[in-house]
Amino acid sequence: MKLLVYSHFFAPSVGGVETIVLSLARGLAELRDSNGAPQFELTLVTQTTAGNWDDKALPFRVIRQPKVVSLARLIRESDVVHVAGPALAPLTLGLLFGKPTVVEHHGFHAICPNGQLLLEPSGEPCPGHFMAGRQTECLRCNSVEGWAASYRLWLLTYVRRFLCQHAAANITPTKWLGGLLQLPRGAAIPHGLNDVAPLSSVEMVSGAPVIAFVGRLVTTKGVRILFQAAGILGLKHRPFDMLIVGDGPERQSLEELARKSGLGSRVRFAGRLGGEQLEVELAGATVAVVPSLGGEVFGLVVAENMLRGLPVVASDLGALAEVLGDAGLTFRTGDAAELAAAIESLLDNPSLAARLGQAGRQRASEFCNRERMIESHAAVYRNLVSAERDECSHARAVVVE
User: Fold this and answer.
1) pLDDT tens sequence for the chain (401 residues)
2) Distance CA 89, CA 69 (A)
3) H helices of 166-262, where?
4) Going by CATH, does the domain composed of 2-193+370-400 fall within 3.40.50.2000?
5) Which pTM was predicted?
6) Beta-sheet pairing, 210-214 with 169-172
7) Angle, vertex CA 356, rays to CA 350 and CA 357, nearest 5
């Protein structure tokens, strides 16, 4: 089967979409039938430049920044088209050529002009103005860059939604997101992750308990709420240190805020880390906190820390709560006092923290199973091709009659 996967962003760009698309494409390309032949002849198309990345090391073909004519030819030659996010060009071409086109939603672009389901510029969660028909609110929300840009985003949301409604399948990583999008032919397939060794297998660092945050340093990730909660714990004279892993446009202002809040000596900004270096840093953590304010459709950081066996405290956003299940603690989004109380309950009860860490690892191993993610996608493609062949056979039979 010839499968074309389109992802606007891809390695060497770093992000959740890039991580999942690479893992999925690699897994699909490595699937073999009973005779040992590849099940998929996979081509990945992206608008990201290669930089120092070696595409030849991948088990599939990568085509970067193709012209529209080349993209049209690639889609026409494919049996199935998979689009990571409702990108207009591949979606339109896939439907135009009558190809079974699958959209995997990594954001809210089919129901929100800015794709984040957040009110701009405050970054607060949006109650769903677009789907509720409150279009004036949508236009006002995105007018920071000018009304012309806002109208353009608003109109494109209608176009994306129309195209998704005609796609052969709409895949979401959580049922919660599927419920928000309200698109036909939906399927929830959780993101699959590679297993990591539980941190309990690493010698833990002694001393004050460590509250860890991992993520991009932007407003929506809620680090300021975490600092407010830390301030509450500080007023109670609780011993703790804080580890901030990640980088982003707000790093400088957050470092300044930590100093002004009297948290400077307790907070360490480690920058962006990965691989073994990240695991070593987190080996000393007591609890992982994910205080996101919005924009989450899955919560990779939640799942990754669950796999590490760390007890997780996360805001009660729908996607995060679905991934976490009952294997961690949640707090009302944006409520620093509730966050402080949740952290305190784990610091006061090591046995609860250990139990949640074990339960989290078990749940993440099952919920975020990589092999199941790959096979579930493969099953979607097979079913679409089989249905198309049956339809063609039926049409030929009708003509003969």
Assistant:
1) 999 999 999 999 988 899 999 999 999 999 999 999 999 999 999 999 999 999 999 999 999 999 999 999 999 999 999 999 999 999 999 999 999 999 999 999 999 999 989 888 777 888 999 999 999 999 999 898 899 999 999 999 999 999 999 999 999 999 999 999 999 999 999 999 987 778 754 344 447 999 999 999 999 999 999 999 999 999 999 999 999 999 999 999 999 999 999 998 899 999 999 888 999 999 999 999 999 999 899 999 999 999 999 999 999 999 999 999 999 999 999 999 999 999 999 999 999 999 999 999 999 999 999 999 999 999 999 999 998 776 665 455 544 45
2) 11
3) 175-181, 223-235, 251-260
4) yes
5) 0.90
6) unpaired
7) 85
The three-state secondary structure class of 103 is: strand
- Cα–Cα distance measured from residue 150 to residue 156, given in angstroms and rounded to the nearest whole number: 10
Domain ranges of the chain: 2-193+370-400, 199-367
* Helix H or strand E encompassing 377: helix 370-400
**Look-up: residue for tokens 């120092």?**
52
Its CATH architecture, for the domain 199-367, is 3-Layer(aba) Sandwich (3.40)
Q: What is the DSSP letter of 38?
A: B
> What φ, ψ does residue 238 adopt, rounded to 5°?
-85, 135
